[in-house]
Every structure is written in C-alpha cells, then in structure tokens.
Specification:
single chain; Barwin-like endoglucanases; 2 domains; 2 helices
Length: 134
C-alpha cells in the first residue's frame, strides 16, 4: 500500500511539472510574437535617416539607430506594433516614441534598425501592414 501511494504522488508531481512547463513555454512564445493584435492598418512606411541619431523624439527619448522604434501620428507613446513588409513578408516589433511621418501617404516612420530588419533601406519606402499589439 505504501508503494502505491508513492507511485500516485509521483505521477501527480510529474503531471504538474509537465503542465507548468508547457504553460510557461506558451507564454514565452506569445511574448516573442508580441501578443495579440488589437487593430491593424495598411499603408507605406519610410525610415529615419542615420543623421537624426541622438536627436530628441517627441516623447523626449533620444533617437538611436540601434533601437527598434518608430514614429506614428496618433498612437500613444510606448505602444508596441508589429510592422510587416508586405513585399517580402519580413516583420519587426517596434515601440512608438515619436510623431510623424509627415510625408504624404505614409503611415509610419521606422528607425534604422527596424528598417534594416525589414530589408527596406535601399527602397526607402515600402508597403507595410502595421498591427497594434496588446
């Protein structure tokens, strides 16, 4: 009888560990993808010139060509968005830290690091899908 109780307890312990590990992994995957999509829009994106590196953004943060940041006309500062280059399917998650873009028919301006990740440096302006993340 003593062995039977031990076996049952061991089964519950192993089951609990498996459930805990699988839950943790799912949460991690969700965070890497950026969470759920609240809203989206399609349009064109441009990117900040490296010459603006170090200048202050509208949020007060210094602009860095290594940071994954962007400018949007209306989204609150700190909002995370997933930007997908609809030509090549590459995407990146950026944080809104500035206002703009001020060019016609553009919906977002990306920092250099994000533009490089989307492979849009040479093109300058590309069609994108912008998804606001929860």
């Amino acid at each position: 009888m003593k062995i039977r109780v031990f076996d049952i307890a061991l089964c519950f312990l192993i089951s609990g560990l498996l459930v805990a590990c699988s839950t943790s992994r799912a949460t991690g995957d969700s965070q890497r993808r950026g969470g759920s999509v609240v809203s989206s829009q399609n349009g064109k994106a441009s990117w900040y010139s490296a010459r603006t590196n170090g200048t202050r953004t509208a949020s007060g943060e210094p602009l860095s060509d290594k940071a994954f940041t962007a400018a949007h006309r209306t989204l609150p500062f700190g909002t995370q968005v997933r930007v997908t280059n609809t030509v090549n399917g590459k995407n990146v998650i950026v944080r809104i830290t500035d206002r703009g873009p001020f060019g016609k028919h553009r919906i977002i301006d990306l920092g250099h690091a994000a533009a490089k990740r989307l492979d849009m440096i040479k093109a300058g302006v590309v069609p994108v899908r912008v998804e606001v993340l929860k």
